[in-house]
């Protein structure tokens, strides 16, 4: 086996998943140093890279190996350059070890202490605190929604960490809805459904992240519905996050949606400039990065709303400054972050349309471009074609090509289908407008 090629295939997989600019910034600099006995050792330039990747894409690299090698690979990092000042993560490490002993796996850094509160997220913050102080009694379920990168995973994890810290015997489960779906699928395949039921019905608090991904997954929804009812009856706490409010969750059954509205629905809005500045200062302090005021303002105004991106810029700057010895200032930021800044101004691309549509409907990009004609795939494909037609200047033939070599008649047909459906179906119309707004710069 040629490890160079293996790694190249993994990188291709990763690039397709995260997009070019994230890939160039974070993944391209990594090298595969060793690969044996199902252990892979990757080199990363410094600790910032490792932390950023562990926080933002904890499973992506193993998924890439699994896809390329059809095998489970354990991924480890070796840091090329250890900075002189050791980064202190004592609290987080202690928490992690203590929780692991109880079978709880939460990101130890996502706690209330590190969550900065401003007008855009104070409602969610207050609700989350209230829930963590009286489980199952105040708002049940707590349903949190907001755009990507605004702190949903952070705040729901903070609830879990607080419970695990204050109630040593509480059983806390955090699960993404994708992971939950995988568990359901695997339980069905291995006839282990009763184990799965038992696992989820024994919890004191269930944190279900990104519930939008169970759209279209009928069996997962059935299972979650029963779990929900069982927990709710026992007054166990349920916290759900989503990228949109319950009523806009298309392809999730009404009975489940109505369950989501039984407690409190709270949204996180895009942050104000002041909140972005406060978050940057907090993150700089946590990472022990010296950050002049002018750069704080510069970044907070340049990065539109995604806090993950804001933090990514900060870490990237620190990583660069660390490698090159240049101080962190506006001129370094302009050099290092130029990709990100131009990204924000880029016109609409088919790649981006396809990515957003795939995320919304929970289908994979290769499926979208495939010849499959099942409803689950055909509808998102038609929607993506329709949006491409509406938002770009591409010819019908070029649109067809961008969707795995379809002809222009297919694109016309797709647009007609979508337009007809939008006219008849108010809910569907909303979904289309929602997606278009999300894609438009
Ligand atoms: P989402 O789940 O909504 O996509 P995350 O919870 O993953 O977003 O947040 C993205 C990043 O931004 C995380 O590193 C998180 O710590 C940080 N973040 C988001 N909101 C805040 C906040 N109010 N204070 C501090 N950090 C935040
Ligand atoms: Mg999240």
Secondary-structure map:
Layout: H1 3-18, H2 20-27, E1 31-36, E2 39-44, H3 47-56, H4 60-69, E3 74-79, H5 90-100, H6 122-133, E4 142-145, H7 152-166, E5 172-176, H8 177-189, H9 193-201, E6 205-209, H10 218-233, E7 237-242, H11 254-260, E8 264-267, H12 273-286, H13 293-302, H14 307-324, H15 330-336, H16 338-345, H17 350-361, H18 365-368, H19 375-391, H20 396-402, H21 408-424, H22 426-439
Parallel strand pairs: 2-3, 4-7, 4-8, 5-6, 6-7
Antiparallel strand pairs: 1-2
Helix pairs in contact: 1-2, 1-4, 3-14, 6-7, 8-9, 12-13, 12-14, 17-19, 19-21, 20-21, 21-22
Bound molecules: adenosine-5'-diphosphate and magnesium ion.
Q: Can you tell me about this structure?
A:
- By secondary structure, this protein is of the alpha/beta class.
- The chain folds into four domains: 3-90, DnaA, N-terminal domain (GMP Synthetase, Chain A, domain 3, 2-Layer Sandwich); 112-268, Rossmann fold (3-Layer(aba) Sandwich); 273-329, Helicase, Ruva Protein, domain 3; 350-439, Chromosomal Replication Initiator Protein Dnaa, Chain: A, CATH 1.10.1750.
- It contains 22 helices and eight strands.
- The protein has a five-stranded parallel beta sheet, sandwiched between helices. A three-stranded mixed beta sheet has the order 1-2-3.
- Strand 6, helix 10 (218-233) and strand 7 (237-242) form a beta-alpha-beta unit.
